Amino acid sequence: MTFKNDFLWGGATAANQLEGAYNIEGKGLSVADAMPGGKERLNILASPGFDWTIDEKKYVYPNHFGIDHYHHFKEDIALFAEMGFKAYRFSIAWSRIFPQGDELTPNEAGLNFYDQLIDECLKYKIEPVITISHYEMPLHLAKVYGGWKNRDLIEFYVRYAQVLLERYQDKVKYWMTFNEINSATFFAGLSQGLVPSNGGDDKTNIFQAWHNQFVASAKTVNYGHQLNKDLQIGCMSIYSTTYSFDANPVNQIATQQSIQEFNYFCNDVQVRGAYPAFTERLHKKHGVKAELLKITDEDLSIIKSGTVDYIGFSYYMSTVESKTGEGVEASGNMVLGGVKNPFLKESEWGWAVDPDGLRYALNDLYGRYQVPLFIVENGLGAIDTVDNEGLINDDYRIDYLRRHIKAMNNAVEDGVELLGYTPWGCIDLVSASTGEMSKRYGFIYVDLDDEGNGTGARMKKKSFDWYKEVIASNGEKL
């Protein structure tokens, strides 16, 4: 293996999916707190009648409890340390710091929690890697301000980010501004707070929201660099390697355009500092009223100056594009869609398992942008069972991760600069797309079901000891 000695092996989570404690010690409600659990979660949020109202008589809200990491973080981080984590990627809940999002002063009780969490990581020499906004904007900003389409959110976000950067600049080196910012291509409710009832079905609003986020991100990067030149502030997006179903030029062009829209658009703005040449084509494709977009020369100057230091990205699957529809079968992927790849197997949730696609992704991103890369999410969501002896034998997860780590190594040998690897959901947590606990990713099992029943006890899976050895050997022992 060719991973460098300071390679950041670790794991990743998000505040809204594991912390719980959704309404204590001054925390305000977030958009995640208003998302019902279950496989219909995204369909509910996309329905015309959904207005971010919490209806506990009608729905279950698993994010309210998560896995109660808020009260168990010392136990959980001790388990991460036992595995040998070099880094722990987590997010800070915006509504725990600014409960409504538009206050002038932060909630000290919320900051105190993250003081303890960060110090607990540092006690074990675990590098904190913090996402400033991870699908958990204050609900007030979505309901009252209309989400990220409102330019007022730039000021609110930057104020929030500055509080974090000032407080933790000497303890936290690696930051990311927005989680999976390009997810709004398919569903804007998670990252932009936009649903049909507040304009989420109008692509003009989606592109305006993106622009506002680009400005907020660039301002944050500039502020962080002025504050402390050692801070590394990155962007974060989903990357899905996309293949054409066949050699038909129609499908080849469709594939290229799909890649530009999903994998490049947001990265181009945040890494290169300017909108790409194909932006006008995207506007036309989606019926965006470009003349209504509020984009100033000052905004563009800020975006140009506030480019990120690295690209963090999630990689779970590849997709296949077909416009001709000849000889294809629909993919089981309910998130990204596409058609089945006859050469790959799919997970229980229809996600194509494609380690070689990760090598492709790493080479593609590094070749295009020439900045360091950081795989901050990767993993296999699966139904894990506890056997009669109390063991969780998740060999399928070990196989998935082993193959992806080998692909990472191949990409490093190809010349890619890779900072680290933090597999997603290193401890079981609530799924973002479905609100389920049964869709598990972790090395650590948490005894809770989809309705929140269970003891909450933590148990090591077989993959726990396997990953511990991977880290100890710097990837040599797989």
TrEMBL record:
Pfam families: Glyco_hydro_1 (PF00232). Keywords: Glycosidase, Hydrolase. One of its GO terms (molecular function) is beta-glucosidase activity. Gene3D superfamilies: Glycosidases. The active site is at 377 (nucleophile). InterPro entries: GH (IPR017853), GH_1_N_CS (IPR033132), Glyco_hydro_1 (IPR001360), Glyco_hydro_1_AS (IPR018120). This is Glycoside hydrolase family 1 protein. It comes from Lactococcus taiwanensis.
